[in-house]
Specification:
Layout: H1 9-26, E1 37-41, E2 44-48, E3 60-62, H2 70-78, E4 85-88, H3 94-102, E5 106-116, E6 128-131, H4 137-147, H5 155-161, E7 171-178, E8 181-191, E9 194-202, H6 211-225, E10 230-236, H7 240-247, E11 251-260
Parallel strand pairs: 3-4, 9-10
Antiparallel strand pairs: 1-2, 2-3, 4-11, 5-10, 5-11, 6-7, 7-8, 8-9
Amino acid sequence: MSRSFVSTFDLSREVERVAAEYTARRFSGPGNPTGTQFLRRGGLLAMKVPFVPGNPFMNGVHGLEDAADLPAVLEFYASTEQCCWVDVTPCSTVALTDALGRAGFRPVRYSSALYANPVPDPAPSDADISIIGAADRDTFLDTMNVGFDTPVDALPTLRRNQSFWTDVPEWTLLLARVAGEPAAAAVLSIHGTHGYFAVASTLPRFRNRGLQSALIARRLQLAREHGCTSVIAYAESGSVSQCNQQRAGLAIVHTRCIWSNAS
């Protein structure tokens, strides 16, 4: 059952802050193996990874509300001749979208911010889900990345760049197995009193078996055990992931539109 809350600009900003905080941690990590660069200005966080300029998640702009901040953002990406992807939320001004249009940006996709307060009761599940430590890290990472249709030849590099994932104290890594085989993976990230449903995926041959719903239920349980008073998630608007999270008790706070100047 969905828990009622009042969707305000303050709540939207807090949800966006948590998502940006997780994203920054995910793509920098100890020693910053991917060479992620940041521009921070108040609530604005822009990040870029020059060796993968076409990745929208690694080259995203979060918390941009004021058109006055856009020139600094454009200069940040122009210095490495990169495009970027800007999250535009209901907190953003019309002046910002006008400025983005003049600068050659256009809307490219939509995502839904979901939230529940208090944490809903998790649904029972008999899925075989375990918390992953360093010993099973590569199995977890390969499951996660192949679940995103990553080419097999890219897996060794990703294992190296993501090797710190089991060392982040705020993260809990979960692996779902079917008949003993790795099938799906997910991450819960703790941000104070918020539990954030971070990255999650399912291997192609195991899709449509309810594994992501089971992983949502397990993360709800863990969020409660960590003392969280709310949970936050994102999903592509209208996607199966959004529906799974709504069925679990989360509700939409706002929809954000992602604008890009990528050709």
